[in-house]
Amino acid sequence: NPGTAYYYDAKGILLSDSDMNLIADKGYLYNNMNIISEKSVNLTSGKTLTIGTNVASVIAKGDVLARSNYGYVINDSHIESKENSIVLDGEIGVTSQVGAANLSALNGSISAVTTYGQIDIDELIAGQTAAAGVKEAGSVKIGDIKGKDVVLYTENADATITIEKSITVEDHLLLQGNSFDLPKIQRTNLDGTLIVDVNGVGAGNGS
Predict the structure, then answer these.
(1) DSSP per residue, 90-127
(2) What pTM, to 2 d.p., does this model score?
């Protein structure tokens, strides 16, 4: 990556002034430092990727991607994008039980996606779009979700989507699935129109 500069700090901080890519497509990714980047961070592991174990924490000015090709993505520490977005992509599940202050994209979007497992997040709060979804089999369980737009989806007819405490949305709520357990919807801004789209999954299920 020409032009990339990495600096190791004695306090256990790995600093980068350009995009940082730490990739182990089929193996374990392990770097026990706090990662701080002036641009974007890509963490890709073939095994379970735990923020707090495989890396200590992640703070980036740009996008943050935390991906496990064959395992879970777990946030036990701190993931933050100061100006852009966060994607948590775990093949068999995504978990974050550390509160909104430790999963933060106040100026961008947060997306949590899994192929076969469960999305289990206590607070999913984004400045733009807050999204969570299941590609094939699994379920979505979130305590509080908040965004200018909120997207909750599954591509499996038998999957369930549960929001346990609150949904707060400004412009657009998109729901795709056949089974929802949702609380009362709250508005961040009472001006304008809230657009709600609900789409079923499988044969004979329309919007």
Answers:
(1) ETTEEEE-S-GGGEEBTTS-EEEEESSSEEEEEEEEBS
(2) 0.91
Please tell me the number of Cα atoms within 13 Å of 9 on its side-chain side. Answer: 10
Residue 152 backbone dihedrals phi, psi, to 5 degrees: -130, 125
Looking at 46-188, which runs of residues are DSSP E strands?
49-51, 57-60, 64-68, 73-75, 79-81, 86-90, 93-96, 103-104, 110-114, 118-125, 129-134, 139-154, 160-176, 179-181, 185-187
Rounded distance between C-alpha atoms, residue 68 and residue 44, angstroms = 6
- Whether 9 has a pLDDT exceeding 60, the answer reads no
Assigned token pair, 4: 């990339």
